[in-house]
Amino acid sequence: MAEIVLGMGTSHGPMLVTPPHTWGSRLPDDRRSLHHYQGRTWTFDELVQHRASENLAAQITPEMWEVRHARCMQAIERMSQVLADARPDVAVIVGNDQMEIFDDMLVPAFSVMWGETIVNNMISDEKLSRLPPGVAHAMPGYMPPEATYAGVPALGRHMIERAVADGFDITALKHLSATETPHAFGFVFRQLMKDQVIPTVPVLINTFYPPNQPTAARCHAFGRSLARAIQSWDSDARVAIIASGGLTHFVIDETVDQLILDSMRAHDFAPVEGLGEAIFQAGTSEVKNWIPVAGAMDELGFSMEVIDYVPCYRSEAGTGNAMGFACWRPDNNKERIQ
Hints:
Blueprint: E1 3-10, H1 27-32, E2 35-37, E3 40-42, H2 44-50, H3 62-86, E4 90-95, E5 110-113, E6 117-119, H4 125-129, E7 148-150, H5 153-165, E8 171-173, H6 183-192, E9 200-205, H7 216-232, E10 238-244, H8 254-265, H9 270-274, H10 287-300, E11 303-313, E12 320-329
Parallel strand pairs: 1-10, 4-9, 4-10, 5-8
Antiparallel strand pairs: 1-12, 2-3, 5-9, 6-7, 11-12
Helix pairs in contact: 5-7, 7-10
């Protein structure tokens, strides 16, 4: 049977693949957008007033941006080394799509790709021109000019069949797109695998778009199902399960992030579920890519190490991206967490 040798969780935001002196290029979009924070919607100016006592101006100086960027780069390199040291034959990557391959005509709740190949080419100039300010220059961090990687059809199909048997309705994909891959997956391919991409099964969760966002509890149960499916696959492959996305953004909430990380470290999902679904909206919804991996690790009893947590603020409103980097590895004394 296959062996799960590693779990990982990584943020993947544009601030991780762009130099810190460009982080302010997102501010025009921040100022005109509505933002989700503490379970409700705010204007930029309302957030500035609400968070005035936090002195966030001290978090957005060029010097602080340099420090935070350096920490993130160190964490990414550490994650890459942990992945290489685990020597997986196969990766199962849990990520989300932001209307990169789907559109509002079709947004599945859970999808698994069981095709032969994954195409990850740079998006067209026309698509680049429609990206929000400060995002287009980040795309090389996710997409090379052209690349094709191997899928794992046998494992993908086995995961689909086992998930269906466990009561999950899965959209079965033979390919992601003819030309490109969602950036959640491209980040792992380029930044953690360094373009040396091992055969991969992409798993997509609709974190962003109502009305069919899976609940946090459903995502956790799905992760347990994935772990059982992988372990029952008739193969001697070594498998890594990797979450890509999060943590809180587009408004950072360090209290929420610490609760989530502490709960995952303790194998105690109740506090995360207790946050309520209103918290898991907009960018923060990508925590639901981590939750299935945490569920899988609860099934296995692996120990979690937080490699770093770096809140990368870019405005006095608290906009930005909280970057999290963590791994789960086998514990010699592990027990399944019920």
